[in-house]
Amino acid sequence: MNKTICEQLRLYLVTDRDLSLGRPLQEIVTEAVAGGATMVQLREKEASTADFVALARQLKAALAPLGVPLVINDRIDVALAADADGVHIGQSDMPYEDARRLLGPDKIIGLSVESLADIEAANLLDVDYIGISPVYGTPTKTDTKEPFGLEGLRRAVEMSTHPTVAIGGMNAQTVADVVATGCNGVAVVSAICSAPSPREAARELLEIINNNL
Amino acid sequence: MNKTICEQLRLYLVTDRDLSLGRPLQEIVTEAVAGGATMVQLREKEASTADFVALARQLKAALAPLGVPLVINDRIDVALAADADGVHIGQSDMPYEDARRLLGPDKIIGLSVESLADIEAANLLDVDYIGISPVYGTPTKTDTKEPFGLEGLRRAVEMSTHPTVAIGGMNAQTVADVVATGCNGVAVVSAICSAPSPREAARELLEIINNNL
Hints:
Chain A is an alpha/beta fold. Chain A has helices at about 5-10, 25-35, 50-65, 75-80, 95-105, 115-125, 150-160, 175-180, 190-195, 200-210; strands at about 10-15, 40, 70-75, 85-90, 110-115, 130, 165, 185-190.
């Protein structure tokens, strides 16, 4: 039995090569999933398309047997070439309607929302989930709007008709409060990518999440 | 009657926002085509996907009625979203087989080749044309291999089983010699994008090309 999208969102790893302390992304991802990460977003801002596709294929081959979905940040072409499970798009990426048309009805499409207005707009779309971003200020994203904060996140989750994952400043200290707002999961970057043991970090995060859902 | 790909390659404009002296790309492209440019490649390395798609759509709408094909540099997703006429891919972009599978049999796929070995490899693929790059050293591309030079270009053209367009250092002073090597056309960046009058520059280049084919 496949997990529902809500279950898949529970502990959602977003990769960041620059925050991985020089370790290969494949290692970070494999370890994170061994520790319990439920979904992986491959995010590459600098890679060539050839390298991006090759990496996506490697991760897809590693994750598919484990039933862990792989989504690609922004690049519909890379997702199509690697037959990834879907994409995650931001407000300045491919418009949702185009992404859906190119990917077909069965692929996962997640959309970042950075304001309550974005959520109202997303409610009109057939996206599979929204990423509410950022909850807290975070050093890994400098181009986002005002943080939602816990109260803002609670309102955002209530307002959304789609499953929700919270992102931005998620770590072992913050996830309990975040999950208590009612979101379906948390998306982490440095809390796993920069951890001494990504596997142990994922295990610890998932335990806190499961205890506070 | 549609032009053949060989005719479409004759004066091939590659856009470069940074070299357009602050003028909108739409203006550069419209003027260049009014002057005789036969094909346009939209190249955007920094734009968001949303902006890239929007610009591609605008150019497609402007060029389609004129019968001038629009190809997109690297980004298959943008080409698909905007229903461009094809893509131009480099050696580190999407592998050809993936690009063809995603675009279907009818779209134009051009491939940059930077060595004779690349040309031998390209001869085994069903690409629509190759871009031989660079012919001369050029300030607009810093990541390419040793220039072909005129003699190297002549050998490259002879070796290729595909239509050829020469790129790298093309301007009113160089195109006569370049076209005399037997290539089907020349691709220019700054010679049109940075010209005081892109229309006049295109007109002058096309006249030299036509006189030396």
